[in-house]
Amino acid sequence: MPTFYYPPVGQCIYCDSPTTDLGDEHIIPFALNGGMVLPKASCHQCEKIIQPYEMTVARRIFGHFRIKHNVQTRNKKQRPETMKIGTLMPNGKKGTAYVPVLDHPVMLFVYKYQLATYFQGYPPEVEINTWIPISLFNKKELDAFIEQYHWDRMIKLLAVPVEFARQIAKIAYSYVVAEIGLGNFTPMQMTLDTIMCRTTNVCHVVGGNEELPTPDPKGAHLLGITVHIKEPMRPVIIAGIRLFPAFDMPEYHVVVGHFDMNNEQHRNVFTQKVIIGTEQVAVSHATDE
What we know:
By secondary structure, the chain is α+β, with helices and mostly antiparallel strands.
């Protein structure tokens, strides 16, 4: 996986700490094949808050997927070669078996979110978290595995929609900082609170589309930034994210912050980067591959 480095930030993008002991921020986590890096961008204290839910998402949601599709890892030798399944024989007898991990079809359980409640007109103090768990799998591959190993189709799942939303918010915010620049916009406080685990009202700023988009065979992560101009003096910055789009993954959006048009620095960046045309205007679009 090639790595693209943005210019170093020099302070923590989450708490504004000016400490010189700063870590590099993978915009999309390394464990999810992220290749875009924002150097010197996160303090160790904020990293300690973010890492647990990043690990949860990487393991609980994408764990088997990462093995099956050889997603990059720093601990390849620790990846298991077999996995335990329950079996149900034609005579009705139940049992267990260990099967090769690479033989087991990937069943990817992710979440669809409704439109972020910010856009529905709800204030931050009103908590309405709505998500729909969805499973993505290849039916032909799954049927063949059931027939070969007599799998009982039982799966243990731990629902982690809040952690997943935090991950999406973190990707969105760090991407906007990388593309627009820290200090060149005003972050949404609820977005920072979502990333730093100070609120459970994650759907105020994190949302998604009801319909699954057409798969993109290239498979590279898709990220984009748009600006919603409802109030001319306060254009809202929205990041769009689609992880692993070759696998029917949903699209997500995050309300990241806004430009303050009374701020000369914000106004100059807005003028340089934003392409005016419609109410929804493009700032940038990238793939992480």
